[in-house]
Design goal:
The N and C termini lie close together (11 Å). This protein is mainly beta and 714 residues long. It folds into four domains: 191 residues, Lipopolysaccharide (LPS) transport protein A like domain (lipopolysaccharide transport protein A fold); 182 residues; 183 residues, no CATH class; 116 residues, no CATH class. The longest helix is centred in the C-terminal third of the chain and has 8 residues. The radius of gyration is 34 Å and the shape is elongated.
Length: 714
């Protein structure tokens, strides 16, 4: 379940009460209602109201000690504790004048508060042009709480466009704790959460890979459905670089284009760059498109210029175009797919095949003739690469099943036929370029659900016991002469106990005469049905050896599979635990395991503790978290260690201060960039002036990627 992001102003005190329903009308209208302790009438249609004067009309309120109402000119002058309110602003001043006809008003010595944005300020004069625009002279602007001017923007003139959600400041001075740090003759800033064009706050950082890193992004709000970010960047060890991103979002499609150019890398002595384009759409009803293009200039681009361990270890880049159709119970897909190999040391015969093209049809039609369920899978693919084998593969797999169901039980026999044919290119002389395989697939899937009520820890609970048995039979056929285009051994986990093939793709169909026995138990809250605990365990019993293998793999002769167990528990509202174990009873040892403990507390506190191992391959510990020391101060960190290699894969530690209107984050980070163990070390600082922008690098984005749950509200 996705978590909501922490609101930007959640640490702030409320300036003013929310606007009443009458004030929410953006266009003032209707008659004026006036109440006062005393009323005097003068000549020429001027009325003087005094003593707790309240002027009211829909969309506009005015309170003052004294008000002069000029009826012929339809103007109002207010004096003493003047307060003007409308849908967008609340202004408190010594005096004010409002033309009720043109809706233009001027306030002297004013304090103003923006309703839709946690912003306030002072001005020698505030001029309102209806509810759309405000002009302020000798003004200040901040998003800090009253009495706290941690940062403040001072300007000779400020223009606020409430319709566009943007402000302009002339001769602007930015102060931090009354210390001037920045002057700009003209500065543009947001006054609500809408997107606006303009320069974003520059980013400055440093790393051992590239030296000092300075970026000055420009955001271009092209249209409501399109925007772009253009970022000139300078790396002291590599040279100038240009990055760009274009995004679009329409009712029927969305996409993102990204690119970067480093004309001359001072370290590598050559041009470097990267490009990516992701697009998804639905041009017509039931039709869908997906485009994914990724290119880089060289094999160490991500190692040198990437920003994470996972990106630095990228081996292939996927390039793919999909066009699909979703019918009533069936699905069709056309695909063109290729790869750019990043690691060029990989030999040609080990690189993935391109699909030029792939056509796929899947269908499921339940409860048809005599209650039968009909299932169909069909695929034709043209596999191509520089190294043989290449060719076309046709795979057809229809299945019929007859489910029997009663409350708490099910019994489903199934019978299918899988027919796979190859039409190979450039086969050696004397070798048939056409091979095929046709095999029946028979299975029986049955199970039951038993349930009981119990009391535990003072709560009414329900416990289930769900035994399940799955029998599978597929006769043996020698497939050693078949090419291997996309097949590999499937990872063995709990759901795999009930699947008919232990290989991916269609190049191998295992022989099987086996029975899976498994059981699941659940602990449910009686009142809500929430799952507090789920635990499962299962194993396959083999009645014969498995002779179908992939090249380089031996036949499997064990009489039973490894025992698979998995568990998930909600220990408390804040704590959750997940685990998985694969145990080999023949070797009497565990082959694979993982455990993950998570804590999600109030105030943004979180803890992630993970352990995973795979025998003779990896053993890792991953710990990350955030701990609030006080209301505003917190520490954050990650420790990602490979026990098998005795190597620290990534370490990150930092401290942050987060208040109503500003935050500062300081993070040190080190991670491995390649299999040789080279590291990238960096120190990152970010000063966030909420409502204005960020100074320094985007530390917050880094923490969201590396510390699971960071920035989410629980």
């Amino acid at each position: 379940m996705a978590r909501a992001q922490i609101p930007q102003w959640e640490k702030c005190e409320r300036f003013i009460e929310p606007a009443s329903e009458e004030l929410l009308d953006p266009e003032p209208r209707g008659p004026v209602d006036v109440t006062a302790d005393q009323v005097e009438s003068e000549k020429e249609g001027i009325s003087i109201f005094s003593g707790d004067v309240k002027f009211r009309r829909r969309g506009q309120w005015l309170d003052a000690d004294e008000v002069h109402y000029d009826k012929p000119n339809n103007t109002v002058k207010a004096f003493g504790d003047v307060r003007y309110q409308d849908a967008t602003v609340d202004v408190i001043s010594d005096s004010a004048k409002v033309n009720l006809e043109t809706d233009i008003g001027v306030a002297e010595n004013a304090r103003y508060f923006l309703r839709d944005y946690h912003a306030r300020g002072e001005a020698a004069e505030v001029e309102r042009e209806g509810s759309a625009k405000s002009e302020l002279q000798d003004a200040t602007f901040t998003t800090c709480d009253i009495g706290d001017n941690a940062w403040q923007l001072k300007a000779s003139q400020v223009s606020l466009d409430h319709e566009e959600g943007v402000g302009w400041a002339r001769h602007a001075r930015l102060k931090l704790w009354d210390v001037p740090i920045l002057y700009a003759p003209f500065l543009r800033f947001p006054i609500d959460d809408r997107r606006k064009s303009g320069f974003l706050v520059p980013s400055v950082g440093s790393s051992s890979n590239s030296g000092v890193d300075i970026s000055t992004p420009y955001y271009w709000n092209i249209a409501p459905d399109r925007d772009a970010t253009i970022t000139p960047r300078y790396l002291s060890e590599r040279g100038p670089m240009l990055e760009g991103e274009l995004r679009y979002l329409n009712p029927r499609n969305q996409g993102k284009i990204q690119g970067s150019i480093l004309p001359h890398d001072d370290r590598k002595g050559d041009y470097r760059g990267a490009f990516s384009y992701q697009h998804t759409g639905s041009p017509w009803s039931r039709w869908f498109t997906n485009l994914d293009i990724n290119l880089v200039s060289d094999d160490t681009y991500f190692e040198d210029l990437g920003n994470s361990l996972s990106i630095a270890s990228t081996t292939y880049l996927n390039n793919q175009l999909d066009v699909s159709y979703q019918g009533e119970g069936w699905y069709a897909l056309g695909r063109f797919q290729g790869f750019q190999t990043i690691d060029r040391t990989i030999p040609g015969f080990s690189r993935p095949h391109q699909r030029l093209p792939q056509l796929l049809v899947d269908g499921f039609f339940p409860d048809r003739f005599l209650g039968l369920d009909l299932d169909f899978h069909g695929e034709v693919v043209n596999f191509q690469r520089d190294a043989l084998p290449n060719g076309v593969r046709l795979d057809l797999w229809p299945t019929v099943s007859l489910p029997f169901r009663t409350p708490g039980t099910f019994f489903t026999p199934s019978l299918g036929v899988r027919d796979t044919r190859y039409f190979l290119d450039d086969t050696p002389p004397g070798t048939d370029n056409t091979v095929s395989r046709t095999l029946p697939v028979f299975s029986i899937d049955t199970g039951a659900v038993f349930e009981r009520s119990l009391s535990l820890w003072g709560s009414r609970l329900r416990q289930t016991l769900e035994p399940r048995a799955y029998y599978l039979y597929i006769p043996f056929e020698n497939q050693e002469d078949f090419p291997v285009f996309d097949s590999a051994p499937l990872d063995f986990y709990f759901a795999r106990l009930f699947q008919p093939n232990r290989f991916t793709g269609a190049d191998r169909l295992n022989d099987a005469n086996q029975l899976t026995l498994a059981v699941t138990t659940r602990l449910l809250q009686s009142s809500t049905g929430d799952e507090l605990l789920r635990a499962s365990i299962g194993q396959i019993q083999f009645f014969r050896d498995r002779k179908v293998t992939l090249p380089g793999f031996p036949e499997e002769t064990d009489s039973s599979s490894s025992i698979i167990a998995e568990m998930a528990a909600r220990l408390a509202p804040e704590w959750s635990l997940r685990g998985e174990l694969r145990f080999d009873p023949h070797q009497e040892r565990a082959d694979l395991g993982s455990a993950e403990l998570r804590y999600r507390g109030k105030g943004g506190s979180l803890l992630n503790m993970g352990y995973r191992f795979r025998r003779q391959l990896l053993e890792q510990v991953d710990i990350s978290g955030r701990y609030p020391i006080t209301k505003n101060w917190s520490v954050v960190g990650r420790w990602y260690h490979s026990i098998a290699d005795d190597r620290l894969l990534e370490v990150l530690g930092g401290v942050e201060y987060d208040s109503c209107c500003w935050a500062i984050r300081l993070v040190g980070r080190s991670y491995i960039t390649n299999i040789e163990g080279d590291r990238n070390n960096s120190v990152m600082v970010q000063l966030e002036l909420k409502g204005l922008g960020n100074l320094g690098q985007n530390v917050e984005s880094l923490l969201r990627r590396t510390v699971l749950g960071y920035g989410e509200q629980f």
